[in-house]
Amino acid sequence: MRHLTTMRIGIALSITLAFFLAASVARAQAGVSVPSTGLNNSTTQTDSTRQIEQVQQQQLGDPRAAKAYTSFMKQKNPEKRIKEGKDFINRYAADFRTQAVYEQMAQLYYAQKDLPDFYSCTDRGITLYPSDATLLSLAGYVTAHEYKPTDADGPKELDKAELYEKRALNDITIMKTPNSMTDEQFAAYKKQVLALAHGALGLVYFRQSKFQESVNELEAATDNSAAPDATNYLVLGADYQNLNQLKQAADAFNHCAQIDGPLQSGCKQYADSLAKQTATK
Question: Which CATH code is given to the segment(s) 18-30+43-211?
């Protein structure tokens, strides 16, 4: 059996975005507490009402933005939702919900396989929100998977993906549970980011023929994943094969073969071939 190399391996994307969506929605729908003034006479009540309105304006944002965001969230048609998202970003750039809109727009573009707009959206979002672990990990993951060896800027793109994922890992590690999420929700979100970031780094290092570094990242990715990604196991098997650790390679391919999807039959063939190869030694 020939080794799977960076030129020969087939990669299929299988990104689970549910936790990312839940996280951005939770942040944008965070509850707001309005402080009490403790004032009771009619004059001070008027002042108090104005103060409360000012606080609500600061914490809740423009009520027109709230209405636009609700419409964006309820919109089921992808093309119309993308249009509403663009309008929201252009009109309410300073609103606190804008970060969540960038996150969701990135997911919409990727679901539509619109990679130019996906990259444009994530680049702008990361510029505005440089510690956004969702945008960083997602952008790095897609960049690593969409890489083509024939691209003139391919090496630079891999470097960019590596940088994004390292930043995502750092940011998610120091991030505290947001007020808008329960500890359980945040733990699930954090686990998803860790799995995507480590998985992307593993693929980057595999494509750079840094097989041991790739193994380290992919072992971390599979340990962190509640829903294992077949791609991670496929690349992990190829790493071990290139390191001449055939038993570990067969184990990784067998894990991949247990996951339904386009990689399943190929992984089974790799696992069976390695089993025959090791049995003769």
Answer: 1.25.40
